Structures are given as C-alpha cells and as structure tokens.
Amino acid sequence: MTQENGFPKDFLWGGATAANQYEGGYLSGGKGLSTLDAVAGGAYKVPRKVTFKRQDGSLGEVTREESLPDGAVGYIDKDRYYPSHVATDFYHHYKEDIALFAEMGFKCFRLSFSWSRICPKGTDEVNEEGLAFYEAVIDELLSYGIEPIITINHFDIPMYLADHYDGWSSRKVIDYYVFLCETIFTRFKDKVTYWMTFNEINFLRSWTQIGIHSVEPQSKFQALHHIFVASAKAVQLGHAINPNFKIGMMVAYIPAYPMSCRPEDVYEGIKRNRQQEFVMDVQCRGYYPSYQLKAFEQEGIHIAKEADDDAILAAGTVDYIGFSYYMSTVASSDPNAERSEGNQVLAYKNPYLPISDWGWAIDPLGLRISLCQLYDRYQKPLFVVENGFGAIDEVVDGNIHDDYRIAYFKAHIAEMKKAITEDGVDLIGYTPWGCIDLVSSGTGEMKKRYGFIYVDMDDQGKGSLNRLRKDSFYWYRDVIQSNGSEL
Fold first, then answer.
1. Rounded distance, CA 2 to CA 322, Å?
2. Phi-psi region of 233 (alpha: psi -120 to 50; beta: other; left: phi over 0)
3. Which of 290, 295, 402, 423 is 20 to 30 Å from 99 at the Cα level?
C-alpha cells in the first residue's frame, strides 16, 4: 500500500448522502412511495411520527420505534410536513451540487439509490425514468473523475412492500431486492465499482426502515435474517456480473467503553459491542456467532431458515466494511448512571468527553480505536463512510464561519492517519456525512447541519434552496488536495 503523507496515494476522499434525506422529488419521474415518505418532521427530543391508515379507514400515528396496527398502511396527510418529499432537492440540483463536490476535489461521492424510484412498488416492474436519473448522476460524477459509491438500500423500503408483504418479514422481498440488484448491477457494471448492500444494518428495526408492522424481537430478527440472505445473494450476483465489483456492508459503529475497570462494567461493554459485532460477524465471516445463537435461545427467538440459507451466507461474505462513526458510548452495570443521547441509541454519559448540542459524545480517538478494533477482528479493508458534526450554522453577510466543524474533522482525520501509519489499518476512504446540508434522519430537522455546503432551507421546508460554501468547504478542499497532510 503506497502512502503519501500518511494516507494511501489513491485514498478515496469524498462525502456521503442518502436519497431520503437529500434527493427530494418524491413523486417526480415515476417514483413510487417509500416508507420514509410517511414520516413527518420532528425536533430534538420530539420524536418523528409515522402517519398511517387503519383497515377501518381511520387515521393514526406512532413513533418510528412503535408497532403499526395489523393491516395498517402508510398514509400521507396533506396538512403535515414530510421532510423527505423535497429534502434539499438533489433531484433538481444534482449538476450544481456535483460541480461543487468537484471544486472541493472529491475523489468519490457516496449516494444511495431510492428503491422506489427504480422499482416504484419494489417489485419486478422497472421505472426507466428513475434508472435514467441515476445514470445521469453517475455520468456527471464520472465526468469530473469522481468515483460513485452506491448504497443500494438506505433506511427505507417501498411502501407497497410494507403495506402488502409486511416488508422484510416476507421471504418474497429477498427476491425483489435481488431483482433490484440485478437491474442496477447490469445497468452500471462498467460505471460503478463500490457498492454497499444496506445502510447501518444494525439499526434496521421498524416499519420505517424495513416495513415490518410488529417491532417485537422475533419479528425484527426474522426480518434481519432475510436481509442477511438478500445481502449475501447480492454479493454473489454482483461478483458474477462483474468480478471487479467491491461489495461491502455498512454498520453504525459506536464503541462502548466500560464505565470502570469493575469486571461487571467490562462485561457490559462486551455485551453492548456484540450488538454491532453480530451483524459484522454474519456478513464478514458468513455465519451466526455462537453468542448470538445463545441469545436467541435465551430470549425464545426462533429464526426460520430455508435449507440453503447457511450456505448462501457463507458464500456471500463482503469485500470490505463500511461504517459510520460519530461518537463512542459507555457501558455500565449501574442502572442509575447518568444517561446520554446518541446516534439512535441511549447510553451512559462519558465524563471525560464533551458533547454536541444534540448530546453526542465528541471522541476523535474513538475513531482510531474503532479502526483498530474492526481491522484486528476482521482483517478486511475498512471505509469510513459516515463521520460528521451536526451543529447550528449562522449565515453572516453571506458567510458561514464553522470553525467548530473544522476542529471536529481535523481531530478525527488526524486519528485516522495514526491508525494507518502506526497501527497498520487498511483504510481505503473517508466520506464525511452530509457533505452538503440535508435533513436529519433522527429528528427531521434542517437546523442540525453537517455540510461543507449550506442549503437555504428551514425546519418547515421553507427556503430558496440556494447553496453557499462554508469555511469548512475551503478547508476540506485543502485537505484533499494535500492528501491529508494539511489539516
């Protein structure tokens, strides 16, 4: 691995987004509805709500963590604001945005495809206009020498599959997902090299993300098994279509430190880390780890498998591990320890770390720790595909002075460099989250901004959608140009 200034000379610097938070155009170009199109906006500590219609025609809403009534279907209330419908409108601004990414010097750009834009119902009916849109985006990226990194499915499912199949509860959805993969692998086999099958697979748990009505553990883990099988089939299929494809998994990695050296706290840390290691073990090693099988046994969970499922998992292991890193957390055996907010998790507060305005621990060294733990455990190439700092930005005379964001990235990139040069980690790229402002997945807000590029849009979806370069835009441009030597 040839290195320049600590980073490989072909290191993939870029940025990351998701269709449901960035793309917009929710009914444009033949797109069908997705589950996230029925999720209204929220706020910090104000949960986002799923709106639905019961079988008797009455309307209701639940939080994204709750079960939907049997037979309920997603419903769009014309009087509610749904952030995904416009998001920050990449659909109509993709040429402008990609030109800005090129100005920053991006080597790659991670985006997700909307399943319901390509297959409006999620079935085997293809919307050519949707495919043509993504082809235009990919061609625009390639015209600037920017490598497309494609997340095949990012936190949603076509609403039709949720309404009519109970989402990933049904094995039939495996076939539909594989059909989607065959469609895009074939269409883009000479234009895309890097793929990820599912976003943050350890956070897939409800109607919003996977279309299941019940969020009981039995339902969730059975659906997750179907997702594992679908991912493994996609890996095998992709390699058959183009052996040069690099097909990875993606996990939200939040290392859990023990609160103390008390053995009870250390063991709590082991248990918490297993919640994310489990999904990597299946996708990187090709089988369910013994600790998870024991957990299923103790919780009375039975995973229904078909005869060849285990062989499929073994044959469909991934080429690399993509992961998000925003924060670390703490594990404690003391139920009265102080709690802290986090990236879709509730954990214990680390007294040694500062926190963001949204309660997330800021821990640059934790990124190096994560890289070491993952590479030591799996010995597969790693790709930091999300990392970033949500904050409130102020526009002053047309400028956004975001020194706080620069400080965050500077510290995290420095730790990545140490992981490569001092720990021997094989790290292939870095795509900070929300390289351009987009809607927060957790809260549905716009004021929680991550981007190097500001988008004029507020929490109610009002604004000009004009793009502005923040100070961090120019800083990150210099980082890329120097291949990480200038921080």
1. 21
2. alpha
3. 402
In what helix (H) or strand (E) does residue 322 lie, and over which residues does it extend? strand 320-324
Structural domains of the chain sorted by starting position, each given as residue range(s) with its CATH number in brackets? 3-481 (3.20.20.80)
C-beta of residue 251 within 8 angstroms of C-beta of residue 276: yes
The reply to whether the predicted model has a pTM over 0.85 is yes
What SS3 state is found at 187?
helix
CA angle 219, 223, 229 (to 5 degrees): 150
Question: Six-digit token pair at 89?
Answer: 């409108």
The count of C-alpha atoms lying within 13 angstroms of the C-alpha of 455, restricted to the half-sphere facing its C-beta, is 31
Kindly give, in sequence order, each residue whose CB lies less than 8 Å from that of residue 284, ignoring residues fewer than 6 positions away: 249, 317, 318, 321, 378, 380
The residues assigned a catalytic role are 386
DSSP per residue, 244-302: T-EEEEEEE---EEESSS-HHHHHHHHHHHHHHHHHHIIIIISS--HHHHHHHHHHT--
Tell me the Ramachandran region of residue 325: left when phi exceeds 0, alpha when psi lies from -120 to 50, beta otherwise: beta
Residue 1's identity, in one-letter code, is M
